[in-house]
Specification:
The complex is a heterotrimer of chains A (482), B (251) and C (456).
Chain A lengths: L3 H9 L3 H4 L15 H10 L4 H15 L40 H10 L3 H7 L9 H16 L2 E4 H7 L1 H7 L10 H9 L4 E5 L9 E2 L14 E6 L4 E6 L11 E2 L2 E6 L4 E8 L13 E10 L5 E8 L4 E4 L2 E4 L5 E10 L4 E10 L5 E11 L3 E10 L7 E11 L4 E10 L5 E11 L1 H9 L4 H17 L4 H14 L6
Parallel strand pairs in A: 2-4, 3-5, 4-7, 5-8, 6-9, 7-9, 8-10, 9-11, 9-12, 10-13, 11-14, 12-14, 13-15, 14-16, 15-17, 16-18, 17-19
Antiparallel strand pairs in A: 1-2
Helix pairs in contact in A: 3-4, 4-10, 8-9, 11-12, 12-13
Chain B lengths: L1 E10 L2 E11 L4 E5 L6 H9 L5 E9 L2 E2 L5 H6 L2 E4 L6 E5 H15 L7 H14 L4 H5 L1 E2 L5 H15 L3 E5 L7 H14 L5 E6 L4 H4 L4 E6 L2 E6 L2 H9 L5 H6 L1
Helix pairs in contact in B: 6-7
Chain C lengths: L9 H10 L6 H14 L15 H4 L2 E4 L19 E6 L2 E2 L11 E4 L6 H9 L18 H9 L3 E6 L9 E7 L3 H5 L7 E5 L2 E6 L4 E10 L7 E3 L2 E6 L4 E9 L5 E10 L4 E8 L4 E10 L5 E10 L4 E10 L5 E10 L4 E10 L7 E10 L5 E10 L5 E9 L3 H9 L4 H17 L5 H15 L10
Parallel strand pairs in C: 1-7, 2-6, 5-8, 6-9, 7-10, 8-11, 9-12, 10-13, 11-13, 12-14, 13-15, 14-16, 15-17, 16-18, 17-19, 18-20, 19-21, 20-22
Antiparallel strand pairs in C: 2-3, 4-5
Helix pairs in contact in C: 2-5, 7-8, 8-9
The chains are: A alpha/beta (482), B alpha/beta (251), C alpha/beta (456).
Chain lengths: 482, 251, 456
């Protein structure tokens, strides 16, 4: 028997069916957010009714929510009515014609990272006539995956081609009203990635957004859904080390992972969005909800992230360890330089028996950067013999930056085994002088100290990513020591 | 080997060294003794090239070369080693990895071939035994989580591995109990050689029972007020530094 | 905090009234009792005490420990060879059983003379009852204050500047409660024999000394008695002071101990606290790193079974630059035993380049055992390195399985692993007779045997 409230809710949520007409011919929605705009986005994407319903329910939930203020970050308030929530991909005419039109500072960074010219053009969004090598690479890549039954496509494509999978899993890990930013994303998400690994398949290559055609313009409300069916394995790479510039200041992505029995998902992120200039002007706000559900027994989800970008980062990749013997991991390096602010960490929720989780967080603050680790480990009553190991280390470079650690531990089952370690240290003239005195020059010393500090996280990254991440860190911290 | 002449140095506008003269020959062990604030540690830091100190007058030469012209790592390459009063922690960087980087940076600078992992490990084990350092210490990050005594021993191990021409020991004895003191002293004595010199900086005479110096200097208020043989250390122990005020007036 | 009107404080105030405040530290005694009276016993809202159930102690009527003298050789089983010793029975000096050290100032507090009185006047209680207590915030440590007000006897050691003692000094605090105390338990209000052992160690500049304190009962089956000791260490510049505190009281004993160290420039204070006995035990430690380059190492081990409770409350204050502190506390808990570790590291703004490390590891051998671990860091300097780690866990099943797969029986494999866990602390003892004794006590405790006397 549905309750009265349920019925009322169902009725109110049906409004749109009669409410408004959408002009599908328009390419760009006017700024502002309303049910009309959401219907417009959904229609533009040719979405089924249930998905539109879903978006609208998220929107109605969002209207009642307040923007969270508990994070240790400060930023100018966002005017959600001034944002444009739908824009068709840019035509070539609007793009820069060549690298000459690109900010020389960004180009200098590309050079330091050793990115080939063609890729530089792609990253900078230059309109290029020639077919990239990468496109052809990507095509062969997709064929090979199709043979194994792996689905790897954009979220919009998945809605069209695999609606039953999307419908089954969407919102099951991050409910559409989970939090303010997740609800906003659920209402207006633009596009993103969809991955499905069938039973028993070990995905033979790292899946990377980089190789997904059309992935460069997923917009500011990205939605990713990865499902690993029983006994499967996938390693997914998000982002790249090159700095990404975007006109949209606010980014609120949602990532959902589902791992069934004996399945493993490894999700690696290198995030290097534009942090703003030295004064912090123009940087991106990155408010992300990432969560994985270890649904089946012995499943495993591992998050690894290297965060060097954004002006403000608000991000807590989490794991719900529901299956018995499931494993959650979180490895993170977060750098905040100049005026950057990062409030990041993880949540590990132990539900199943003998579940275990590992948290290794390395925060580096330089300039006037503020870095906060916020982690929560919850051992529910049902989680017999659960284990957690947490290690949170902070490194300060210079004396105007800050590091803050907020570990929350909540244990409802006395058989839990908990380990916690934390440290704060400062890389300073003393350490460098000490290395110098032993014959090691300053450049090598800084690199040695920073990489030593991040070692446990780097070794979790896929090999080539790790090398890039190391270099990225050096570039990000350049000039902050000595 | 080391020639310090009329050295004046200041930090933050305060003059700490007010004309230090010191000559150390190869094979010799010199002890520099003085109370807190006399400038002992400043002398050590200035020798190693710490930038916080400004040399306002005088000269510093190692084997005839002007140390002032050299960066800290170049001084290390030239064979100058400082055992720090407060050794610095470097989290995440393994002790043996650090030492290997240091050994090879020095070898490279001197035009010698770099040691491979096997050769280095052999050298490290041999020296660790020499100075009685537990192998577990080699695997831990540099000085990170080391107790006060472990840090001091680690400095001596680094010295044994880097084989400097001139080693400056800055209050390596402080906080050590007698047993640890003997171990450190044994390490230093094992490294005494004709082509190597030591400058041992200390507040107290006890360490000099185990490392017997050829020369003892008393540093007071930025000047060496008296020099002598090892008997001077005993005299100091009895009289305290107060007894040298008169000497300072003469100096 | 409760008020002075608390009726539970009354009997202790009476003890003081009966004793008076004479002697070289009379004024300090008076001040201490006033502070105690004002503060009262801690209530359940006091963060540092809420997990310690003082009920069993406070419900009993305190009577001074009897003056009973131990028979010849009664202390012998507890004394180490190659050691100077001072023996106290029920808090009073037993000169016949002692062989006090030479070359240092060592005297019974009940009988200070000449230079001794000066030492006391200068140092005794000078820091214990003041600003740096273990109580929530620099308030009064009620039991340390009681000790200052009520101690009858104790020992003061003055190590002359530059002296390096070759032999450790053992101070034995032996409890031998009279049978009457136990017999009175059936009455309207049970009485409890209480003693207030007091230790003062003043290490002169550049001196070195090792002091071993042993708390034990002449009869390990002795009924409830209450030991309320306080120890103070004043470590002069460049000194190295080693301190071992072996708590092996009778199973039914109450023990609320407090120790305080002030460590001056370039000095090192190295303390090990090993707790095996007692029903209700507190071991509160305050270390003040008060000079540049001061260093302290605080290690501890508690091995508990049955319904034993042990609380270790630490406060380490880094007040000057380049100070280092290392804490390693390990606990093995079986039965329904409970433990609390409260470790607070306080880094003052002036204490740049502080290096502080704190580790608390607990091994639970039964489902009903409970360990609490609360590391607290308060850092007001920006260039420091502070780490803390705590674990509460069970024996590593994989290691156990590994040993069994190699043919070692369950019991033996279990014992080996627990032993290995605890030995990290006992192995640090460098004085061979002590190390052997600790080893034997550890073995006995882990095998459910209550040992008496020193094992070696």
């Amino acid at each position: 028997m549905p309750t009265a409230t349920d019925t009322i809710e169902a009725l109110t949520e049906r409004d749109y069916e009669y409410g408004f007409v959408t002009d599908v011919e328009q390419d760009t929605a006017p700024p502002g957010l309303s049910e009309e705009i959401i219907a417009f986005i959904s229609a533009k994407k040719n979405e089924p009714q249930w998905l539109l319903d879903w978006r609208l329910q998220a929107y109605r939930g969002w209207l009642k929510m307040a923007e969270p203020t508990w994070a240790n970050v400060r930023y100018e308030p966002v005017d959600y009515q001034s944002i444009c929530y739908y824009a068709a991909p840019k035509s070539d005419d609007d793009r820069p014609k060549s690298l000459d039109e690109i900010d020389p500072e960004i180009l200098a960074t590309y050079e330091k990272l050793g990115i080939p010219l063609k890729e530089q053009e792609m990253l900078a969004g230059v309109a290029v006539d020639a077919v990239f090598d990468s496109v052809s690479v990507a095509t062969t890549f997709r064929e090979k995956l199709a043979e194994l039954g792996v689905i790897f496509c954009s979220f919009s494509e998945a809605v069209q081609d695999h609606p039953e999978l999307v419908r089954k899993y969407l919102g099951t890990v991050v409910p559409r009203r989970d939090n303010f930013f997740a609800a906003l994303n659920s209402a207006v998400f633009s596009d993103g990635s969809f991955v499905y690994i069938p039973k028993g398949v070990r995905c033979p290559m790292e899946l990377s957004t980089y190789f997904r055609i059309n992935a460069m313009n997923t917009g500011q409300f990205e939605r990713t859904l990865i499902i690993a069916d029983e006994g499967s394995y996938v390693s997914y790479l998000e982002g790249c080390t090159a700095p990404m510039r975007d006109e949209n200041q606010l980014h609120a992505a949602v990532v959902e992972l589902v791992a069934h029995e004996d399945a493993q998902i490894k999700y690696s992120t290198v995030q290097n969005w534009y942090p703003g200039d030295k004064e912090g002007v123009g940087g991106i706000y990155n408010f992300v909800t990432k969560r994985g559900l270890c649904e089946g027994r012995r499943s495993k989800i591992s998050w690894t992230q290297v965060e060097t970008g954004s002006a403000v980062t608000w991000k807590y990749p989490s794991c719900i360890l529901r299956g018995d013997d499931s494993v959650g991991e979180f490895y993170s390096v977060a750098v905040s330089n100049n005026r950057q602010q990062a409030d990041t960490g993880t949540k590990m929720i132990h539900v199943g028996k003998r579940t275990s989780s590992t948290i290794i967080s390395k925060g580096i603050s330089a300039g006037e950067g503020q870095n906060t680790y916020r982690g929560s480990v919850r051992i529910l009553r049902s989680a017999e013999d659960a284990r957690n190991f947490s290690q949170c280390d902070s490194m300060l470079i210079g004396d105007r930056c800050g590091a803050h650690t907020f570990p929350y531990i909540d244990v409802a089952n006395p058989t839990a085994q908990m380990e916690h370690e934390a440290s704060t240290s400062k890389i300073g003239e003393d350490q460098i002088f000490y290395c110098n005195q032993r014959g090691i020059d300053t450049e090598d010393a800084v690199s040695m100290i920073v990489n030593g500090f991040c070692k446990e996280v780097f070794r979790e990254l896929p090999m080539e990513f790790a090398v890039e991440a190391q270099k990225l860190l050096e570039v990000s911290l350049e000039g902050s020591v000595g | 080997m080391l020639r310090v002449s009329d050295l004046h140095a200041k930090v933050e506008e305060q003059e700490i060294l007010k004309g230090v003269d010191l000559e150390v020959k190869a094979g010799e062990v010199h002890a520099v003794m003085g109370p807190n604030g006399s400038g002992k540690s400043t002398l050590a830091q200035v020798l190693a090239g710490k930038e916080d100190y400004e040399i306002t007058a005088g000269s510093l030469e190692l084997d005839g070369e002007d140390l002032q012209e050299m960066a800290p790592e170049e001084r290390a390459h030239a064979g100058l080693f400082l055992a720090f009063q407060y050794p610095v922690e470097i989290p995440g960087v393994g002790n043996s990895y650090f030492l290997k980087a240091a050994v090879n940076a020095n070898r490279k600078a001197r035009g010698e071939s770099e040691l491979d992992a096997m050769d280095f490990l052999k050298l490290l084990r041999e020296r660790a035994t020499l100075v009685d350092v537990d192998e577990a210490l080699l695997r831990r990050p540099v000085n990170d989580g080391f107790s006060g005594g472990e840090k001091k021993r680690n400095e001596i191990l680094q010295m044994a591995v880097l084989e400097p021409r001139l080693a400056v020991l800055d209050e390596t004895d402080s906080g050590l109990d007698i047993d640890a003191l003997k171990t450190v002293a044994a390490g230093v004595n094992a490294l005494r050689a004709e082509n190597r010199a030591f400058v041992v900086i200390t507040h107290y005479q006890r360490l000099l029972n185990y490392i017997v110096p050829d020369h003892v200097h008393v540093l007071l208020d930025g000047r060496i007020v008296r020099s002598g043989g090892s008997e001077l250390a005993h005299e100091l122990e009895e009289k305290g530094y107060g007894g040298f005020d008169g000497a300072r007036a003469e100096a | 905090m409760t008020t002075g009107a608390d009726t539970r404080t009354g009997p202790y105030l009476e003890l003081f009234a009966g004793r008076g405040a004479g002697g070289p530290v009379g004024a300090r005694r008076q001040q201490a009792i006033e502070r105690f009276e004002a503060a009262g016993f801690p209530g359940s809202r006091d963060e540092e005490w809420r997990q310690t159930n003082l009920g069993p102690i406070l419900r009993a009527r305190p009577v001074p420990a009897s003056g009973q003298v131990l028979g010849d050789g009664g202390a012998l089983p507890f004394l180490y060879p190659d050691c100077d010793s001072m023996v106290f029975v029920n808090g009073r000096y037993a000169p016949a059983a002692s062989s006090p050290p030479e070359g240092v100032t060592a005297f019974s507090l009940a009988d200070p003379a000449g230079a001794g009185a000066d030492l006391l006047a200068e140092h005794l209680g000078a820091s214990v009852d003041g600003r740096a207590s273990c109580s929530a915030d620099a308030g009064v440590h009620p039991f340390a204050a009681l000790n200052t007000a009520l101690f009858e006897d104790g020992v003061a050691l003055g190590i002359p500047a530059g002296a390096a003692l070759e032999r450790p000094i053992q101070v034995l605090w032996l409890s031998a409660p009279s049978a009457d105390a136990a017999a009175a338990e059936g009455g309207a209000q049970a009485s409890i024999e209480v003693s207030f052992p007091r230790l003062l160690v003043v290490a002169g500049e550049n001196s070195q000394a090792s002091v071993i304190e042993t708390f034990a009962a002449a009869d390990p089956a002795a009924g409830g008695y209450f030991v309320c000791p306080a120890a103070e260490f004043v470590c002069g510049a460049g000194s190295v002071v080693r301190h071992t505190r072996l708590q092996a009281d009778a199973a039914g004993a109450f023990h609320l101990g407090f120790q305080h160290a002030r460590v001056d420039r370039s000095a090192a204070f190295d303390s090990s606290s090993l707790a095996f006995g007692g029903a209700l035990v507190r071991n509160d430690t305050v270390a003040l790193l008060d000079g540049e380059g001061a260093d302290c190492t605080l290690d501890g081990l508690y091995v508990l079974d049955g319904s034993q409770f042990t609380g270790n409350h630490m406060r380490v204050e880094h007040r000057q630059p380049h100070t280092t502190s290392h804490q390693l506390y390990k606990g093995v808990l079986d039965g329904q035993a409970r433990s609390v570790f409260n470790g607070r590291i306080y880094v003052h703004q002036a204490a740049q380049k502080t290096d502080a490390k704190q580790t608390n590891r607990n091994l639970l051998l039964s489902k009903a055992a409970l360990a609490n671990s609360n590391p607290q860091l308060e850092i007001f300097a920006d260039d420091v390195r502070c780490t803390h780690g705590s674990t509460i866990g069970r024996l590593d099943e994989e290691a156990l399985f590994y040993l069994r797969a190699r043919g070692i029986g369950f019991e033996e494999a279990h014992g080996m692993l627990v032993h290995a866990f605890a030995r990290e602390v006992t192995d640090k003892a460098t004085f061979e007779p002590l190390r052997r004794d600790l080893e034997a006590r550890l073995f006995a405790s882990l095998n459910g045997v209550r040992s008496n006397g020193q094992g070696g």
